[in-house]
Each structure stands twice: as structure tokens, then as C-alpha cells.
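**User:** Here is a favour to ask of a fellow structure person. Please take any protein you like and set down a full record of it. No explanation is needed for now; the record alone will do.

**Assistant:**
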Amino acid sequence: MIRNLLRAIGFGCLLAGGILYVTSSDEESAGTDVRQMKEQIAQLQSELATAKQELAIAQTTSSVDKNPKKEATDSLPSEDSTSSSNQYVLTIEPGANSTVVAAALERAGMIENADEFNAYLTRIGLASKIQIGDHEIDSSMDHSAIARKITKPK
């Protein structure tokens, strides 16, 4: 009788050990999988944030800067730029607002301050009258001449 009891206890211990082994290895691998998934999610979220920033920059720059035609190099304008003027073809696409246009003109070196030009367009009521298409801008033009050029219907 004691022999049968010891066999049953031994068999029970073996069975319990096998069950614990199988379930604990599943939990460990599941924990590892969850940890890896969280790391991947964090990495993807950071990549998404970077992509959103790059898209915002690309939308503001590519909607206006498609056809630069400068006679000088793409470097910063030289100090004697008053004696020679640079030509620039400003491409305004549908959806571009005065802020985007002003920023593109500033990047191209056609104006000195985008905020001032945008304020000028708003003050004289031309900010909403910008015409889409290609506009030839000269660096010798003042704000009023540029405003007339980019708001004149073709």
C-alpha cells in the first residue's frame, strides 16, 4: 500500500513538473515577444514622427521651389548684389498660401524677410489673390512689384 502511494506521489510530481516546464517556457517566450513588439512600436512611432516632419518640410518647399533660374550660384547672395540682379522663376501650385510663397522667395534670396513680405501682402489685401503658375521674379524688385507680379492674372 505504501508502495502504491509513493508511486502515485512520484507520478504526480513528474506530471506537475512537466506541466510547469511547458507553461513557464510559453510565458517567457510570450514576455520576450511582447517586449520586442513594444520596442518595434516605439521605433515605428519615432520613424513616423520623423516622416511627418520631413513631409511638412517637403510640402512647403516643393510646392513653390520647382524651377529656380538664378544667374549666380546657389550660394548666399554676395554683398554687391545690388549692382547685379538675379532672376528666379517662382512656381506657385494650387493650395500654396502667402506664407509658403513668402518663405520660398526668402529662400531664393529674392526678399530679405518672409514675415515682412507676408504682412505686406495681408496689409494691402493681396494675400488671398496669389495666382498659381510660373512667375519670373527679379531680385531688384521691391515688395510692391513682386506682389503685382504674383497676383496678376495670366
Summary: The first strand starts at residue 87 and ends at 92. The chain has four helices and two strands. The chain has two domains: 1-60, 84-151.
